[in-house]
Amino acid sequence: MNIKQFLVLLRQQRLFSGIYILCTALSVAFTMTLFLVIYIKFGPIYPEENRPRMAILGRTNYVRNQPGSGESWGSCVSRALGDSIRRMPEVESLTCVKASGDHVLLPDGTYAAVKCVDTDTDYWRVFRFRFLGGRPFNETECEAKSHVCVVSASLARKVFGHTDVVGRELTTDNQTLQILGVVEEASCAMSSSYAHLWKPVSIEEYTDSRAPYMGPFRLFMLLRRASDMDALRQRVARMEDRINAASVHGPDDMVFHLWGQPDPFWQAPFRSNQNINMQDFLRKVVSMLLAFLLIPAMNMCSMVSSRVNGRISEMGIRRAYGATRRRLLWQVLQENFLLTLIASMGGLLISYVMMIACADWLPFLFETYFCEGEKVSIHPDMLFSGWVMAAVLVVCMVLSLVSAAVPTMWALRKPVTEEINHKR
Amino acid sequence: MITLNGIGKVYRTDMIETVALENVNLHIGEGEFVSIMGPSGCGKSTLLNLMGLLDTPTQGTLEIAGQNALGLSDREAARLRNQTLGFVFQSFHLIPSLSVEDNVMVPLVYRGIPYAKRRQMAREALEQVGLSHRLHHLPSQLSGGQCQRVAIARAVVGSPRIILADEPTGNLDSRMGAEVMDILHSQSRDAGRTVVMVTHNEEQARSTDRIVRFFDGRQVE
Question: What is the model's pTM?
Answer without folding.
Answer: 0.73
